[in-house]
Amino acid sequence: MSGCPQHDEQHDESGATAEKPIPEVPGLPVLGCVPRMLRGMEEFFLDSYRTHGPVFRVPVPGRRMLVLAGAEAATFLGSRRAREVLRQIDLVREVADEFEASESLVGMDGDRHLELRAALMHEYSDRITEGHLGTLVERLDEFLDHDWPAGADVHVMRAVQDLVVDQLGTLMTTPVPRKAANDLRYFWSQIIAVVFANLRPPLWLKLPRYRRARDRARRLGRDYLRSVLAGRRHDRRLPPLISRLLDLHEQQPDLVPRENLNLLALIPYFAGMDTVANALASAVYAITKHPDVHARVVAEADELFDGRPVDVAALRAMTATNGAIMETMRLWPVVVGLPRRTTQEFVFESYRIPADTDVFFAIAIPHLMEEYFPNPRAFDVDRYSPPRLEHRAKGAYSPYGRGTHRCIGQSLGEVLMALMAARIFHTRTVTLPSPDYVLPRTLRPAPGPSKRFSVRVGERTR
Ligand code: HEM
After folding, report:
1. How many CB atoms are closer than 10 A to CB 19?
2. What's residue 305's pLDDT?
3. pLDDT of residue 94
């Protein structure tokens, strides 16, 4: 057994010697708690937390998942101690293996991870939008004209995924043709279902449809690099992420070896595509569902596009729009929890957590708790503005994760979501199929709005 109990006890905030037995959530004989989880992950983890406290085991087929939950778990995940006792789960390696890479940013740990993260921080931030927001708006309009024509019933998930892939490509690498975007989308959704959501067995990754999409995604990455390496290397207009990766490869080949360039060039799509699309689609629903919020969002959008060039400060100043997006991610978090592997035994809230164990950090639970967000089921976009700032309570709000792997694309994602939402509501009327329509959600391949979610789009007359 590794680890040092003496040291761990110092980190047990209750000060008690850690010997509480870990409770188990009761479940069905073979399926365990899966049927309850499928009815609603957030509700399931919240109920279990209320009943059993911040540590519990959940029986699922073949194993008993160890869960650390609540604001306590979110705070711990962001702590220095977490860095010492946790690492990424082994399955994350699958992603690198699928690209014949030795490692990926997401799967790395320790100092190498921090070094690569720091080296890429600027290229993943909202700063890369400066000077490009006009182009992004032009491309948005092209996509909206094509996919969101007046009078159409638009399948929102599909339409926003295409938008997001194009916006990320335009900014960070180069735009991806729509057909290739389908491959990226399919490949990534299946990896998520197997690796992160545990909703499909690892054997799934052997199926022909998955393998075809994966091979085409790999080719896409290779083609990117081939085209830039073939002559545009010193072109100052090289997309920022590609340019940075090539510089790093030249200057620090140990940190960015050649075999990893392909995957590193595609990571923005994998990490940003579904997350932004899920959040934006849910926001389109929530804004449309609440006429008072809708009116404020439209007013902000009209002011943003009143003829002056759009900038990041103006996007961030849209209180209702950004509040609606944050509120969306509180109520329908893109990520309910995060898996990690323990590297040594440690004490958490008086429970002894064993070494070499997969642990699930259910960090989105506080999003639905009255203690942090009064009237938690209400869609209230002003929670995040002064003086309320409800999301600032310790461990309360974690849509972008916590700790060393916390989302590196957060500021970029925020700006892109605000821009896309504003452009949609500035240029179009959006109506739900009926006033009592409820957002259809799915767990497969990953939790999020279902692809059945549709809205009726119309022309806006101003
Ligand atoms: C609504 C938008 C987004 C949400 C909710 C979101 C959520 C997350 C979460 C929860 C993590 C932590 C994963 C973990 O700890 O294992 C993460 C990591 C990451 N995100 Fe995001 N993300 C969003 C947008 C983006 C965008 C737009 C990009 C890139 C363009 C991006 C790139 C990344 C990367 C590269 C990581 C891994 C960082 C690392 O391992 O060091 N994300 N994201």
Report:
1. 9
2. 97
3. 79
Complete DSSP assignment for 211-269: HHHHHHHHHHHHHHHHHIIIIITT-TTS-HHHHHHHHHHHH-TTTS-HHHHHHHHHHHH
* pLDDT confidence of residue 225: 72
Q: Which two tokens stand for residue 329?
A: 């991610």
Q: Is 335 in the pocket of ligand 1 (CB under 6 A)?
A: yes
The ligand 1 atom at the shortest distance from the C-alpha of residue 325 is 1
- 272 alpha carbon – ligand 1 mean position (Å): 7
The answer for residues whose C-beta is within 8 angstroms of residue 142's C-beta and 6 or more apart is none
* pTM more than 0.90: yes
Residue 230, pLDDT score: 65
Q: State if residue 32 touches ligand 1 by the CB under 6 angstroms criterion.
A: no
Contact 408, 401 (CB under 8 A): no
Structure tokens at 47: 């109920």
With beta carbons less than 8 A apart as the criterion, state whether 287 and 297 touch. yes
For residues 23 and 67, the answer to whether their CB atoms sit within 8 Å is no
Residues of the chain with pLDDT under 50: 1-16
Ligand 1 binding pocket includes 241 (Cβ within 6 Å) = no
* Domains delineated in the chain: 5-459 (1.10.630.10)
Pocket test for ligand 1, best of 275, 359, 416 (most atoms within 8 A of CB): 275
